[in-house]
Amino acid sequence: MNIVITGASQGIGYATAIELAQKGGNTILCIARNGHNLEKLQNEVAKINPASTVIPVVYDLTKLCQGTEDIGSIIRKHIDKVDILINNAGLLYAKRLTELTYEQISSMLEVNYLAPILLIKQLIPLMDAGSHVVNISSMGGFQGSVKFPGLSVYASSKAALASATENLAEEFKSTGIAFNCLALGATDTEMLRNAFPGYKAPLTAQEMASFIAYFAQNGNRFFNGKILPVSVSTP
User: Does a structural domain hold residue 131?
Assistant: First the structure.
């Protein structure tokens, strides 16, 4: 399968790419800003399973929001079909609204919501019936979950992505392309540790990645247009 993952240079994205590479001969196009980590991922996958291939794409997703680059054309240089798209990239500034700068607010909205939407728009022409778009949201953006100070913009941007998932599933229902959203609970990642020093998350990035990889490959057989909480706690 041809798989595209954003935010693949660390944390859940990195671990998900490893999981997807372990079985079969998948081509995994990994998008992130950190080229060094992507190269490390590429080399690690080559050792784990030479039948799978990681293609590093060093790219800043905010460029999509500025309309300055067409990432679709970059991707088409490597693959002509997308079977799975995992919109995993995320940005979090854990601050109360009055403490956030305009740039921080704008960046969170761009990375967490606008960039995934624009990437989907550019990659839809490469998808056929059976393709699966998996949007990674957060329990913070899941309706009815416990909310915390400092997460208002982050959580609402992830909630917007979740809502978009439901609408896109309806919009593209006739094509056979599935759209689902995973609202992840607290996971031990660098982003979480930076935002909440000292907090002990109940799941590791590898444990969460194992589920995401399985769901990305199989979830569209059972779900379409669903927002699914993936959490052992709230949030």
Answer: yes
CA distance linking residue 140 with residue 112, whole number of Å: 13
Structure tokens at 76: 């088409």
Going by the DSSP 8-state scheme, the letter that residue 24 receives in this structure is: S
| Domain membership of residue 209 as a residue range | 2-230
Tell me the pairing of strands 132-138 and 27-32: unpaired
Q: Is 235 within a domain?
A: no
- Using alpha carbons, select from 67, 88, 117 the residue that is nearest to residue 11: 88
| Buried/exposed code over 16-27 (b: 16+ C-beta within 10 A; e: otherwise) | bbbbbbeeeebb
How does pLDDT run along the chain (235 residues), one tens digit per residue?
A: 999 999 999 999 999 999 999 988 999 999 999 999 999 999 999 999 999 999 999 999 998 888 766 888 999 999 999 999 999 999 999 999 999 999 999 999 999 999 999 999 999 999 999 999 999 999 887 877 777 888 999 999 999 999 999 999 999 999 999 999 999 986 667 776 666 666 666 578 899 999 999 999 999 999 999 999 998 865 4
What are the distances in angstroms from CA 214 to CA 46, 217, 219?
21, 5, 7
